[in-house]
Design goal:
- With 159 residues, this protein is α/β, with parallel strands linked by helices.
- It has helices at residues 14-17, 26-40, 58-64, 79-82, 152-157; strands at 2-5, 46-49, 68-72, 87-91, 93-98, 101-106, 121-124, 137-139, 150-151.
- The strands form two sheets. Strands 4-3-2-1-9 form a five-stranded mixed beta sheet.
- It has five helices and nine strands.
Length: 159
């Protein structure tokens, strides 16, 4: 299975205040996100995290989270996160083709993207579910996806 997520912001107290996530404490937030991740992602699954992973120890988190994990770097991903050993790959931008659909992955949403006229899809984070939807563009950040990674099929079936 192939999942997408972003903007987990583990260990970042700002998400409770600025993003008004429904958790009583940062510890509760982090534990809930690990639990919801592992409830949907199995050990053999693949996850693309589209940035803003953690302010905590990334190695311990990567070990606790199921799946083979890729990072598309976000604006809040520091050197420890980027260089953590638990990533299968790390990059600022990626393009994948999944079941005949070209995906353009970046932490930031685009106004236009590669092969947009040929029905490619842009997956992003960064906006925390606050942007007006655009055709074939999906915010995969946890604020927009019930605090858990999401399957591509689920995204494409919603529009």
């Amino acid at each position: 299975m192939l999942f997408f997520t972003g903007d987990t912001h583990f260990g970042d107290p700002r998400v409770l205040r600025i993003d008004r996530r429904p958790f009583g404490s940062l510890l509760e937030h982090d534990e809930a996100l690990v639990e919801t991740w592992n409830a949907v992602v199995g050990p053999g699954d693949e996850v693309w995290h589209l940035g803003d992973f953690t302010r905590r120890d990334p190695d311990a988190l990567l070990e606790a989270l199921n799946g083979r994990k890729h990072l598309v770097i976000g604006n809040n991903d520091g050197a420890a996160t980027v260089s953590a050993g638990g990533w299968a790959s790390v990059q600022h931008y990626a393009e994948l083709t999944v079941n005949g659909v070209m995906l353009v992955l970046c932490h930031y949403p685009f106004r236009t993207w590669n092969r947009m006229g040929n029905k490619s899809v842009n997956l992003h984070g960064h906006s925390h579910g606050r942007l007006k939807p655009v055709t074939r563009q999906y915010d995969v950040g946890v604020d927009a996806r019930d605090y858990r990674p999401v399957l591509l099929e689920t995204l494409l079936a919603r529009r």
